[in-house]
Structure formats: structure tokens, C-alpha cells
Amino acid sequence: MPSSAGYLTVAFVLAGGLFFLLWWMMVRSGDEAPWLPAGLASSVVLLVALSAREVVMRRAWTRYLLENGIADTRRKSHSSSSSRSSKKGFSSSIHSAALRTIQKQSTAADSPNSTPEAHLDVAQLCHDYLASTDDAIRSGSYGGEKGIAIRAGQDRVRALHKHHLLTWAKGQSLLLTREAQHRARVFDRIETAHRALDCLDSALRVYPDEPELHDSRAAIDEFIASVKVAHWVELAERSAFKGHYRRAIDRFRDALFYLSHDAVKPEVRQAGTEKIEREIKELEAKLRQRKNAP
User: Fold this and answer.
1) Which of 66, 122, 169, 241 could form a disulfide with 164 if both were Cys (CB 3.0 to 4.6 A apart)?
2) What pTM was computed for the model?
3) What are phi and psi of 110, to 5 degrees?
4) Percent of residues, the chain, with pLDDT higher than 70
5) Taking the alpha carbons of 130, 133, 139, 142 in that order, is the dihedral positive or negative?
6) Which long-range contacts (CB under 8 A, 24 or more apart) does 171-175 make?
7) Residue 37: partners with Cβ closer than 8 Å, 6 or more residues away
8) Residue 291, CB half-sphere, CA atoms under 13 Å: how many?
9) Reduced to 3 states, what is the DSSP secondary structure of residue 185?
10) What are the DSSP calls for 90-129, one per residue?
11) What is the rounded distance in angstroms from the CA atom of residue 7 to the CA atom of residue 124?
12) By C-alpha distance, which of 170, 197, 161 is closest to 72?
């Protein structure tokens, strides 16, 4: 995590420097209230810097959870957490309280107005619960009825973990895909779609046999391929309109390259390939006519 104090210091220094620079320029130009526009500009810079840091830190935390927090719940936790768990133990009251907390947040996350991040939070709670109970069981301190109760709780939490992690992955990837469809630039569309793929891939690392995740991933791959094909077709048509036939042919062939990817459905690939090849033949004919013209 980057230093908060360092970032805030730099932000305040930049805002203060901008304030004094604008104030000095306004004084030289004879402005009657130089501090007003200077203060407004520096405040805007400071607000933008703080907002940008909030967005970056939220994305960094989400990525950290994807890479480190949400892992296979059956994997052994670190030795340090194991030693702490063995020392503190895992009492029945803590077990019951943790279960109630998870179930309460699970119900809230399943409400109609919840966001995908709420499901991710519940999945992380389930992961932490399973790691703690695994440590308690391995310590050998709980046998008999207590051990049976803990294992029964683990079964319920594993089911909740899968439900909320899959719901988050599908919901977040759907939001990002819709956002990608409304982006203006091709690069932004593809970058946003790849973020949706990252969400699905993080869930597939835990549940690799989930068919809905594979179907969603295939749909996003096809969307990315279609964006690239449409981009090169548009460039080719522009070149053809300007009379740059050779450049248009090259760009149509670039579109054919992306159209040949496995992500594109066979029927779409066939129809698109036939159309582009007809365009290429027409352009080649125009090139021959241009060469043979007197």
C-alpha cells in the first residue's frame, strides 16, 4: 500500500504551489481579489487528488483480495495465523457469533438493492471463517460434539462462499461489460472488458468447473474480438473512401485475423469472413483498374 502521509503531503504541496503561482499572476495582472480564483483552483486540484487516490486504493484493495484473499479455502493458512489460532482457540461462542454475522450479511447481500461488492465482502468473511476453523480443527482442541458443530458450520459457510463469490463474479463482470459497451474509445472498451475477465478468472481459480463462469468468459472474449474486428473494418472503410485501396486491403486483412479467433462463433465468423473477402476483391479490382488506366 502506498504511503497515505506521503501522498497527502505531495497533494497539499502541489495545491499550495498552484495557489501561490496563480495568486502572484493575478496580482501582477491587477486583479482585485487574487486569492479567490487561486483558492478555487487549488481546492479543485486537492479534491481531484483525494478522489483519485480513493479510486486507486479501492481498485488496489479489490485486486489484493482477488490475488491473495480469495483462495482455495482448503489451502493451509500461514504458520503465523496457525500459531495465533492455536493459542487463542476457537470457542463455541465465537463459532456461533461468526456464523450469525455471516448469515446476516449474506441475507443483506442477497437483497435486491445490493451491489456486487457486498457479495465479495461476504465471500471474504466466509474465507476468513473457513481458515480460522481449519486451524482450530488441526490444533486438535475440539473433538466430539464441538468438532461436529464446527464441521457442520463449515459446510454451510462453504456453500455461502461459493454462492456469493459466483454472484459477485457474474454481477461485477456484467456491470463492467455494460460499461465497456458504452465506452467511446476502442482501447477503453477492451481494457474494461479485460477487467471483467479478471473477475471471472479469479472465481474460476477457486471453482474451475463452474459452467456459467466459462459461458460468461466466452461471451466477453467474443465481445473483445468483435470490438477489434469492427475497429479494423471501420479503418478499412475510411481508407477505401479516401482512395487508399492498398491500405484498406491491409486493414481488412487485420479484421480477418481477429475474426478467425476461436472466441467468435462459427456462424458469425463465416458470415463476416465472406463479407470482408468480397470487400477485398472489390478493392483489388479497383487497384488493377487504377494501374491499367492511361
Assistant:
1) 122
2) 0.64
3) -85, 0
4) 82
5) negative
6) 171/115, 171/116, 171/119, 172/116, 172/117, 172/120, 172/196, 172/199, 173/197, 173/199, 173/200, 173/216, 173/220, 174/216, 175/116
7) 22, 26, 31
8) 8
9) coil
10) --HHHHHHHHHHHHHHHHHHTSTT--HHHHHHHHHHHHHH
11) 28
12) 161
Helix, strand and coil in the chain, % to nearest 5: 85, 0, 15
Secondary structure of residue 222 in the 3-state scheme: helix
Contact 37, 26 (CB under 8 A): yes
pLDDT at 294: 65
Which runs of E-coded beta strand occur in 2-138? none
**Which of 224, 242, 233, 239 lies closest to 275, judged by CA?**
233
Spell out a b/e string for 21-44, using b for 16 or more CB atoms within 10 Å of the CB, else e: ebbeebeeeeeeebeeebeebbee
The span from the CA of 226 to the CA of 244, in Å, is 24
**Phi and psi at residue 102, to the nearest 5°:** -65, -45
Binning pLDDT at 50, 70 and 90, where does residue 68 land? low
Task: Look at the block and give the residue holding cell 455494460.
Answer: 178
* Torsion angle of C-alpha atoms 19, 24, 29, 32, degrees rounded to 10: 70
Residue reference for cell 463469490: 165
Question: Which residue's C-alpha cell is 503561482?
Answer: 21
Amino acid at 196: A
Which is more confident, 151 or 110? 110
Each residue's pLDDT tens digit, 243-253: 999 999 999 99
Kindly state the greatest CA–CA separation across the chain. Answer: 98
